Amino acid sequence: MLRQYELVxxxxxxxxxxxxxxxxxxxxxxxxKHGAQLRTSGDPYYSHPVEVAGILTKFKLDCTSIIAGxxxxxxxxxxxxxxxxxxxxxxxxxxxxxxxxxxxxxEQKSANNKQAENFRKLLLAMSxxxxxxxxxxxxxxxxxxxxxxxxxxxxxxxxxxxxxxxAPLAERIGMQEVKTELEEIAFKELHKEAYESIQARLNFLxxxxxxxxxxxxxxxxxxxxxxxxxxxxxxxxxxxxxIWRKMQQKNASFEQLSDIMAFRIIVDDVASxxxxxxxxxxxxxxxxxRFKDYISTPKPNGYKSIHTGVIGPENTxxxxxxxxxxxxxxxxxxxAAHWAYKQGEKVVGKNFRWIRELLEILDxxxxxxxxxENTKLEMYNDxxxxxxxxxxxxxxxxxxxxxxxxxxxxSSVGDTCVGAKINGEIRPLRTVLQNGDQVEILTxxxxxxxxxxxxxxxxxxxxxxxxxxxxxxxxxxxxxxxQQLLERTFKGENLDFNEKSLVNVxxxxxxxxxxxxxxxxxxxxxxxxxxxxxxxxxxxxxKLGKVVKSFKMPGFGKTxxxxxxxxxxxxxxxxxxxxxxxxxxxxxxxxxxxxxxIVTTGKGVAIHTIDCRLLEKFADEPERWLDISWxxxxxxxxxxxxxxxxxANEPGALGELSNLVARSNGNISNLNIVNRTVSYxxxxxxxxxxxxxxxxxxxxxxxxxxxxxxxxxxxx
Length: 716
Hints:
Blueprint: H1 4-14, H2 20-34, H3 47-58, H4 63-71, H5 74-77, H6 82-89, H7 91-100, H8 111-128, H9 131-145, H10 152-172, H11 176-190, H12 192-208, H13 212-226, E1 231-237, H14 240-250, E2 261-267, H15 270-283, E3 285-286, E4 292-293, E5 306-311, E6 317-324, H16 325-333, H17 353-364, H18 368-378, E7 384-387, E8 393-396, H19 402-409, H20 411-415, E9 417-422, E10 425-427, E11 439-443, H21 460-492, H22 499-503, H23 514-523, H24 528-535, H25 541-550, E12 572-573, E13 581-583, E14 595-600, E15 604-609, E16 625-626, E17 629-630, E18 639-648, H26 653-663, E19 667-676, E20 680-689, H27 692-703, E21 708-713
Parallel strand pairs: 2-6, 13-15
Antiparallel strand pairs: 1-2, 3-5, 4-5, 5-6, 7-8, 9-10, 9-11, 12-17, 14-15, 14-16, 18-20, 18-21, 19-20
Helix pairs in contact: 1-2, 2-4, 3-4, 3-9, 4-7, 4-9, 6-7, 7-8, 7-9, 8-17, 8-18, 9-10, 9-11, 10-11, 11-12, 12-14, 17-18, 17-21, 18-21, 21-23, 21-24
């Protein structure tokens, strides 16, 4: 563990103006507050914040960051308050420590919810000051270095969280060294056998090629010198985790990977980078599709370099990276390489595009778990680079589509997207984008996000925006349905219904507005009877009971269905007396539809809806058409309405579908699964209904369900 004077000396070695007194006070304060607390390893707890501060000195962070690193656990694990930190060490330190402090109120929530809430707070804090993220990464790095002292279950959870969140965050700000170490420790914990296997293969290669690497370095160095290029050449081995991940992504064996060993050529300036590239390509055969120019098109985290694969010296397939010394510093240390705090400046996290996009996801997510899920999607490696018509570069994850591209440009572009031109050609919105594609998004003010998009988009930002629209759209439907239910209930009891009376009962239902009450009634969270009793508390229960008894519910006071064989035929105006009648199975006409009769051979008159697709077959036979309409007489004979339903593939979804139909006094007579994916079922459902209005009511009830993604009447 670093001693007090050693830590101060480290800070002053790169920042002579550091506040030595504040550093000493913070060191002593952390030791006193953590007192006799011990870590799982048995070490004094205060050794952890001291080691975190030591890691931060390697990033050469400012004095404020080092102090915050020393104090980052005091509020969470001791009786220290943020106000005490502020009074002793100033506003900036207090703000950073507060951003790093876990939420005390979420201890009783689920593990995922707890993790999501913590990450949500971390994101908001680092959007104001990126130092919060740097200290959090140092904190996680030291925890990972001592992970072996924890219980196995806890080790696995922490390792998975590190791979899902913290390693991608380190990559986002370009801190390659931190990212690699976090990945390696987590990989070794989660996939021990794979780690040991790859490590053994690497050890074997080192023994076999112990003389090969120096030979390649010497030859490349000689190539540069012969062409007048001042350069430093070095070799580096890929980490076991990056090798394993590439094997997974490419479904390739260890032997098939060409860049297990990479060589770096570091030169003085950008011009020399391209000159060195010319030397390499003129002397060695380039491997197809292995050239990437991140100098002209840098990665979103600021990474710049030229990558190329060649059959190099000793006839060995190798990867070569060419960059300047400044680019190399950024590649290894990321944000910390061009630190600005020493000049008193503050780097605001919102200046980073990827943080702004994560904040948008935060605004659009309905709950912490959804936010965490979409955030993980958003932080994956950017592997596809596409251009706008103006030449702006957009980085996206692999398998992205034009809809992902549209949301990456701007949320409003995504919401109004109706089509896309890829390299000048109109292409479907689910087309997978390739490197170098030029994408033009076609928009319309009348367009809105489609639930179908959620099935093929891959970016967290797109998924969050689509789901937000679906939630808002469903809420509108709940509000309309709830208002209708309340108006009908009040009217049935001859009671006055007005919104002013609802305002007085908002607290009864934990509602902030009248629309909240409507939505809860429409969703079924609150019944219309509950609202009526709240508005009219003196209303007699006995009278309410009569209404309940007369209201038809499945299994309660339901009148027996008439025997179809004894039902009287429905009267239809315009039919020739005595002719046989049947309802077409292609369009399933219902009372309330506009209909037409077609005279058939041997089967009498077939009744079709006026918009039935099958009618096109009889366009040239007007003599077979009959102008008919439904009769005025009421009839209880059931009719078949066919629905197309997109249902979530989850336990209980089919049961909820049938319950919703039953509660609407419908009866499912047939059900057919026409398509099935991991997330959804696509169904054709035949429902016995009285008329078009009855079917419409059932559709409205289904649309209000969380398990129903899409429902419409089908004419298939």
